[in-house]
Specification:
The structure is a single chain. The termini are close together. A hairpin with a 5-residue loop joins strand 4 (112-122) and strand 5. This protein has one domain (2-192): Alpha-Beta Complex (Maf protein). It has 5 helices and 6 strands. The protein is 30% helix and 25% strand. The active site is at 68 (proton acceptor).
Length: 195
């Protein structure tokens, strides 16, 4: 079991999802220092995760885990993608972002989309683990549900007739893109730190 892991995020929702998944394989999970600001200027989700994990590890010298996630809509050429959190401008609420997306998809037949999480765990100066989790689904006509956060009310995962936001946290945490990525991470960390 790994003794301590720093999660490179200030997002409380993300932190609690990661804690829920990794709780059996990490003794102590902490968020990164509140005063830390990291510029995510990578060209892919994986690059952004690596930038964040490295920055936190370099400052604290404790294994650091970062993830970068986004919603990619096929009919919009993969948008909002890397800019999921900033889509339409920094000051737009997620309600406004979702309305913008639904407007952009109004005349499109193809509503397929996927959520992706790229995760990187920096173990020390030389080694890191990098992996991804992906969930295919579609964008529905109008938001449904009040659970979750971000774009959850308009995303319906494949094989379900409810959105992420209509699922209880425990349900979503068992099928989400972040769960897939973090479950893989948990397996690898458990192998490395089994004693």
């Amino acid at each position: 079991m790994i003794k301590k892991l720093i999660i490179a995020t200030a997002n409380k929702h993300k932190l609690s999802e990661i804690e829920f998944i990794l709780k059996d394989s990490v003794k102590e999970i902490s968020p990164m220092p509140a005063d830390m600001e990291i510029e995510e200027n990578g060209k892919t989700f994986m690059e952004n995760s690596l930038i964040k994990a490295k920055a936190v590890y370099e400052k604290i010298k404790i294994p650091s885990l970062a993830d970068d996630s986004g919603l990619c809509i096929n009919a919009l050429g993969g948008k909002p993608g890397l800019f999921s959190a900033r889509y339409g401008g920094e000051n737009l609420s997620y309600k406004e972002k979702m309305q913008m997306i639904l407007e952009e998809l109004k005349d499109k037949k193809d509503r397929t989309a996927y959520f992706i999480t790229s995760a990187v765990c920096m173990l020390n100066e030389k080694y890191y683990i990098a992996l991804e989790g992906k969930v295919d689904g579609k964008i529905i006509e109008s938001p449904r549900g009040f659970e979750g956060f971000g774009y959850d009310p308009i995303f319906m995962p494949e094989g379900f007739n409810m959105t992420y936001a209509e699922m209880k946290a425990e349900e979503k945490n068992l099928i989400s893109h972040r769960f897939i990525a973090m479950s893989k991470m948990k397996k690898i960390l458990s192998c490395i730190y089994e004693h």
